[in-house]
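Input set for joint prediction.
Command: fold jointly, output tokens.
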Amino acid sequence: MTRATSVGRRIDHVAVAVLDADRAAQWYHDTLGFEVVGDEIVASANVRLVYLAPPDVDSDATVVQLAEPFGPGRVRSHLETNGEGLHHVCFAVDDIESFVTEQHQDLSDIFVGGRNRLACFLGGEAHGVLVEITESAESIVR
Amino acid sequence: MTRATSVGRRIDHVAVAVLDADRAAQWYHDTLGFEVVGDEIVASANVRLVYLAPPDVDSDATVVQLAEPFGPGRVRSHLETNGEGLHHVCFAVDDIESFVTEQHQDLSDIFVGGRNRLACFLGGEAHGVLVEITESAESIVR
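tokens >
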């Protein structure tokens, strides 16, 4: 096998499309003791994003991202078609521009996503998985 | 909020139902540079499980689990209904018996899953997500 030049550093987050992020966050807290480590509006995507992590975890640990839509877009479409559930997986890379170029995607596909980070959805699905790429050393900034 | 007594330590793995684990593993290698860190048959579930992680990652990092069925069961049913894609998320806890008891599930729900670890699927879906619990300090044993 040949290895990609821009190696994925880790799984940044697993995203879940939900109808009510507060109710879902309560479930992760009550069941798994996970704590809210981020809560933001991404107006460009019409979503509220709530991040959850185990207590006392390393800043580069994989987190849960709850995505609650408040308008049209990718997440609302998913909810309408599939109901609540797993939406995408996001992998962190060191240099998103190099990565996107290697994948023969257009640099204009890069956007400023959650947590003000550069991100990009890969064109096409990877064996049925919607894959996002982000450029960041940390998943949690407390 | 009250916190669960048996706190989730981390996200152990994200599982993807696939038709051909070798082909999917190749995708993760070629695109993200992920390496195969485990490959096993779990005869009781009629699945082959292939684990992938970034190179040089900590042993408690979240990994990708590719699940390829070779007979009837949960994964084949998922493939027949939904095609390839995200299947479940698995969280690690310190003591699975305590966790299962707290969740008012039966201890007989605990089984020996992938990597010879005690595991359990939570009854019902958590906001559309199929949730597995495992008892292990490490996701990767090299």
